[in-house]
Write a structure and sequence with these properties.
alpha/beta; Rossmann fold; 2 domains; 6-stranded parallel sheet; 12 strands; binds NADPH dihydro-nicotinamide-adenine-dinucleotide phosphate
């Protein structure tokens, strides 16, 4: 994991668990690399003994520029996973599949029942979420953001499926939403709460939150109280790690209740 800083990352715990489970002679390390040293670090990744890397803030755009991105990384405009294919340094953005795989695990067939989606937020994670929804054929994605220009930028990036909408229109929008996703940092420990009333949502609606500290956000709690299906941020975090492990070590690892319990315990520390 390459970042600046990286000490709070849970990725070493996740990949360490899978390395032990698959009895691999490998290690997953944290590398704290300043922005000015990043390009040189990546240029010598293999010489340092690495088969690849996860990339976190503030290097995800630089990683994109220094590698051969797949469609997901290119569309999102950020790479968070690097690996070698022969001599080529390839990249992807695993938040896209983390988001959709987490929904698949919680609710197989979700894309058939969604209809319209509402995405709260228009930051980095919203780009991955919107692209995941487009990949899975969701035809209308309403994006609500405090700064309207950033929602407009998502429309410019991803096209007509994205509809920028003001917060004030949210209650009406929710009446026809099959999927509501919070990609803002609201509801996170230390942040203001997310000001939203879930009452207008239809009974079949699914609520997803990317925030995973706390594990059960006030949004997810309110959704469960209404008996709505939910997908939580920790699930996404675990599922986004799968692809990296697979491309580095050639084994597709599983997101098990045991792994979840391990990371939950760490988050509760
Ligand atoms: P960004 O900083 O790129 O975007 C933050 C978003 O939150 C913006 O849309 C911003 O609106 C909105 N926001 C922040 N504060 C407020 C506020 N007070 N009122 C209204 N809107 C606000 O962050 P990311 O997209 O990278 O991450 C967002 C969250 O998702 C974080 O909590 C992060 O931990 C989580 N996350 C979880 C992942 C997982 O695997 N579960 C993966 C990636 C992220 P504006 O544009 O107006 O500033």
């Amino acid at each position: 994991m390459v970042g600046w800083p990286v000490k709070h990352s849970r990725s070493p715990l996740i990949h360490g668990h899978w390395i032990a489970q698959h009895k691999l002679d490998a290690a997953y390390r944290r590398e704290e690399i300043a922005p000015e040293a990043f390009a040189d670090f990546i240029a010598h990744l293999a010489e340092r003994g690495y088969v690849g890397a996860n990339i976190t803030l503030p290097h995800k755009e630089a990683a994109l520029a220094l590698s051969e991105p797949d469609d997901r990384a290119r569309a999102v405009g950020a790479a968070n996973t690097l690996w070698y294919d022969g001599g080529r340094l390839c990249s992807t953005n695993t938040d896209v599949e983390g988001f959709t795989a987490n929904l698949d695990a919680a609710l197989p067939g979700w894309e058939q029942r969604v209809g319209e989606a509402v995405v709260l937020g228009a930051g980095g994670s919203a780009r991955a979420v919107v692209y995941g929804l487009i990949e899975r054929g969701v035809a209308k994605i309403n994006v609500v953001n405090r700064t309207p220009e950033r929602a407009e930028a998502l429309r410019a990036r991803f096209g007509q499926a994205v509809q920028p909408v003001h917060w004030a229109a949210l209650p009406h929008l929710l009446t026809r939403a099959g999927l509501l996703i919070n990609t803002t940092s609201l509801g996170m420990t230390g942040q203001p709460p997310l000001p939203i009333d879930l009452d207008p949502l239809p009974r079949h609606a699914v609520v997803a939150d990317l925030v995973y500290v706390p594990l059960e956000t006030p949004l997810l709690k309110a959704a469960r109280a209404r008996d709505l299906a939910v997908a939580d941020g920790l699930g996404m975090l675990l599922h986004q790690a799968v692809r990296g492990f697979q491309v580095w070590f050639g084994v597709r690892p599983e997101v098990t209740p045991q792994l979840r319990a391990l990371v939950e315990a760490d988050l509760l520390k």
